[in-house]
Amino acid sequence: MGESDFGSIVRRVGIFSWSMLGLMLLIVAAFYVLVKGRVILAPLLLAVVILYVLNPLVSWLAGRGVPRVIGAMIGFLVFFSAVSLLAVVIFPDIRSQAEAFIAKFPTLYDQSVADLEGLLSSAGFDSVAIINYDQLLEYINDPENRSTLISILFDQLGTVTSGIFEFILVFLVGPVVAFYFLIDLPVVQQRLVDAFPEDRRAEASHVGRQLNTAIGGFLRGQLVVAVIVGVMLSFGYWVIGLEFWLLIGLVGGVLNIVPFLGPWVGGFLGVLVAITTADVSTAMWAIVVAVIVQQIDNNFVSPSVLKATVRLHPAVTLLSLILGGALAGLWGVVIAVPLAAAIKIVLGHWWGTRVLGQTWEEASEAMFDEPEPPRLRKTGEMPIVEVPVEGSSEDEFD
Predict the structure, then answer these.
(1) Fewer CB atoms inside 10 Å of the end CB: C or N, the chain?
(2) Which class for 253: exposed (0-12), middle (13-18), buried (19 or more C-beta within 10 A)?
(3) Which pLDDT belongs to residue 232?
């Protein structure tokens, strides 16, 4: 290796190191802004999800001459009609199981306390006693304790009010933001590309397509996987005769939006309900159902649905979830994995092209489990990419 080659590598590593430092500072600043202004994070996240879910339909209609504003209206009509139909179908069963759960809660609570005390006693903690349901009610009804609880409630009133306001804000502002983004998406994409220097626009467009492929595939795929996992858990618990099977499956399916969480929580709740309402045999069958659902999800469902995913090591995924939760709470957990994937795409492209001297295609193949269909070709060593022009970039969020 000559001096010029060594100097070139050192210079590339130096540029990458300073870029890494700047990117890390930018990430810290972004998380600081998100924490301070997290009230807008939830509606913005819902808007992004709706955008990625509906844009393929809107773009398909636009390609057939339907104005995007009309296509967005049709997309929203289809979306909310499907949600409303689903709610009508499953809401009666959910309500009946919720009412039954509330009615049996005292019995379930006392049984859980007895089982926990027995477990602690077998572990040598005989002196540990947990209050039962009647003692809990007695504690709450005591005038002195009630005044203390009321004081704590008023201290937390601001947090509760903020939570209610944020919940309302999500479902009022999120769809409106998504609607406007759906209408103006090609213009927004073009302006983002135009923000780069002219000689970097092709590369920016290429990286942008990768980001859209990874994030869009993850969001749409996780929603589909969550539905499938929820249905499988509910069906499995219904087959073994477990009470509240639909509620447990619903919770497991919703939490499966966060990787690793859904089947585990669904399995834990299934075993807990089985122990408190049935017997050990039913609890063992609940474990079998949870394990089968997890294996089907890990080996068949997720690999089939999440095709174009960035290769993230499970440890990196887990650490991202912990870091996101520590920095931004629940919403940080939700966005942690797609954000980690986006960071890996940007850094991987920079390292592959600037340090390792790879082409854009080679850098992409090193990051994706199933690379996106290549939109570039080579002329000698120079990759040529179709740069989107005004009105031609509708498929970037497909």
Answers:
(1) N
(2) buried
(3) 92
